[in-house]
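Below is a complete specimen:
___
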Amino acid sequence: MNWTVSVRKSVVFFALAMALLGAVAARPAQAESLKTRAPIAFLFEPSSSTTLFAKNAEQAFQPGSLAKIMVAATVFRAIALGDVSSGTLCKVSEHAWRTGGAPAGGATMFAAIKSEIPVEDLLNGLLVHNANDAAIVLAECLDDSESAFARRMNELALEIGMTGSTFVNPAGFEAAGARTTARDMARLATYILKDHSHHYALFAQSDFTWNTIFQRNKNPLLGEIRQLDGLGAGYSEADGYAGLASVLRNDRRVIAVVAGLKSDKNRLTAMKEVIEGAWEYFTLERLFDKGVVIATARVFGGTQNNVPLVAAKHVDVLLPRGGTLDYRLRVVYSGPLKAPVESGAEAGELRVIGEDGIVYRSVLVTGEAVELGPMQVRALSSLQNMLFGWF
């Protein structure tokens, strides 16, 4: 059973209020907040799973070439599972050459028809050249057809929580039913950074030469925003320009998504607005030190009925510089905990909740050990639970 704990509530809310009041005391009553011209935008801090800003984050749009980031993640997963290796040779079919290669006139790595190319080089073509032929060759190499590979993409998307996304083809060509959301794109970037970080440098590779043709990285956001090191951009006739970016600055990484823009220039401006807002409009506040008791949890069958829950690490939260008193704290754990209870065992989490839901969560651990109680204590605990529950 999940329990929401209000024990020590006054202490918790007082600490939050003092931290936030201190942060805004010297600022105007009507502090500025992040704004962007993008119709769709999302800003996320992955290390603490903190949502910093959301604007129409669940609104669907066609991904365009952002689908290639999903292709990359799907191939990374296939490599991790042993379905292919970086050195697996993939044959360039006539379909891939005509649909995504030089005859098609779009972004291409100029893969020669009927040639065989290692997966590693196709990933370079996909992410550096934004190559349509690389996307199709990879799809056919893993699953014989674009449609079968799209199913693999969608299976992974659901697995990592991209519930608002459907991918129809690997190149991101305009197609009925193709859709994604800003929140889903942030989930995809988070997945790559967490589970396939050793491949992440591909997104920032400055250039790649294939078939004797030198091409610079086609991501229009690279080099335009300070310390942006990935991921990509997309365009569709139906929904305009979109971008997915990740920035590591001053030991803080943020992921930003914008969509629905009318030009590549507007996309860049909007992305700058959102990314720079992470440092301009949010400040890192320490709400609790590591080891501070935040709440207590009920214990079943122990020498004592409660155990303190303490912060497993310093609780440092990115919070808006203005309007922060709208945030609430909640402690949640599954319980009652069953004795014996070890000290330092993970037992629940502290959540900071804003208007759009949970914006931060931090692990809580038991602050001390609770030994198994004698038989009569355990019997009494069982009777109490049967008659009254653990309210």
Notes: Residues 2-25+286-388 form a domain with the Peptidoglycan synthesis regulatory factor (PBP3), Domain 2 fold (CATH 2.60.410.10). The chain has two domains: 2-25+286-388, 40-280.
